[in-house]
């Protein structure tokens, strides 16, 4: 083996509460997107290693499901404190491997922490229901029981928040878990898992395997896996949902998006522009909730020069620079794809008002940098509109009326998130009622709900009835068992058989 490779840390699997070196022959470099430095090597787990992770989780479930709610709650309370103490370390790992700025990475950790804090309420969240004397001497009650082994498959863009959307509620409610994080940015996820065990999690409750399509297929089809949660691209999410569903698993897939931000001329001008620009270009546009389309209604079209000027003033730099507004894209392939789509926008007839191609950052000649890019005169037929670019590209559409803007959004197949900026309560209410999108922001550009509300993307952005977080998360990771019970007195008479359906 190359001597240089021997000096690069090898990311381990995490099985049974321990780091486990992989025997795989297939490895991938984890690269700093600002410098191209190889930070680590991550294995694509063998089939046997994936099978072992599931087997260990299945065995651990037998004891973990019997662990009292109060004890699970105490572990989660300790876990949230450990995450809070390690915000800086987690954020630094995110920035090194993903590229987003440190303040943005710290914000991601805090949003993940919200979910863990919500899971600390498991003792009350997992309460059942009871109807005493539903019939003569008969009680009916429902209990929420864990499913068994859950699986989470996450994308690269939120290495802490997306796993937190999955395993904290799953394990707090009594399940065990196998997590397959993105191989592009695994280190923050691994620290998150280490902290869970430091908090007191029993061995085998939370396990990690790395890999690609082969590992995903094993997890989706394994007979001991009961539920699969996915967050990532539409292509992979559709595959995961189909494989898991066909194998009889409960499944959810949060997928691609094309999010729109409507700006009415009565909006607070400075706030609307600042929020629109921040939501479009933060994290270099690598967010499923990024507002990548601005619909300027009526006289708000006159604000376009100010939007361009505000975007041009954003600072591009390495994520470690706290003064930077956006960092590099996660990989050279992501940068190349984004630049190709920018060219497709030009070729398709959109007006390129700000071109982020060829972006250079002093001292970081090898970085995957793309600067803020803005197209005007965009139509629904253009490739630059139809594709989820997942880069720092904003498409601007003009609309004469709010009704026209709503119709434009509803014609798009995706329904992840949308926003409106207005000073009119009537317009905001009309928008929230008529727009066919699962998550709506009113004067909020990134409408990701707090953790005790569910993530509710819709239409082509989501497969499955239930989303992460909030009440829906507990419903997804548990099954309802309804019990109808009658207890007879020791001296009760037998009577005769009753052949009717009615409870007596």
Automatic annotation (TrEMBL):
Q: Which residues form the Aldehyde dehydrogenase domain?
A: 28-483
Q: What is the top EC class of this enzyme, as a single word?
A: oxidoreductase
What is one Pfam family matched by this protein?
Answer: Aldedh
**Is the keyword NAD in the record?**
yes
Q: Could you tell me which PROSITE patterns the record lists for this protein?
A: ALDEHYDE_DEHYDR_CYS (PS00070)
Under InterPro entries, the record lists: Ald_DH/histidinol_DH (IPR016161), Ald_DH_C (IPR016163), Ald_DH_CS_CYS (IPR016160), Ald_DH_N (IPR016162), Aldehyde_DH_dom (IPR015590), MeMal-semiAld_DH (IPR010061)
Q: Which family does it belong to?
A: Belongs to the aldehyde dehydrogenase family.
Protein name stated in the entry? methylmalonate-semialdehyde dehydrogenase (CoA acylating)
